[in-house]
Amino acid sequence: MRMRYWQVCVAGALPYRWTFRTAAFEAASIWIPPGRSEFLPEDEQRLPQLLVELAGARATDVGELMRRFGAAHPNHEPHYYLSLLGTAGEHRGRGLGMALLRENLARVDSERMPAYLESSNPLNNHRYAALGFVPVVAFQAPGDGPTVTGMWRQRGGKPC
Q1: CATH number where 100 lies
Q2: Average pLDDT over every residue of 90-107
Q3: Across the beta sheet with 115-119, what order do the strands follow?
Q4: How many domains in the chain?
């Protein structure tokens, strides 16, 4: 399920040219530019059916989770949105993902734009805070799922 969902997300992001990776693909990041959608128009239209296909009996919970993400996402100011930051399991703990994120944020800063991300792992929040992100919203995933923290970074990483 997750692989097919992320394929849809990657397909939606590729046209923006804000998809990055380390040299040997150990880590990757996907950014959505200001005012753009995370999904291709045809995928956005069929997203409810895709959730049923991929999540089956859990489609209602997954749909509710997506609704919570959407409701928490800030709309007060144009910004770059970090849709995905991932590191291959065998490369975790080496700082590759954070190095990639720092490089990405330098690009965002060069455009004088703020950034937003969601963290589903509270152990990572301090890493994002070290790069200038501050928590602005939190919600729990359905079914006693993890707490998701929405984090905002002002232009240039300056505190809010």
Answers
A1: 3.40.630.30
A2: 94
A3: 19-21, 27-32, 80-87, 115-119, 147-153, 134-140
A4: 1
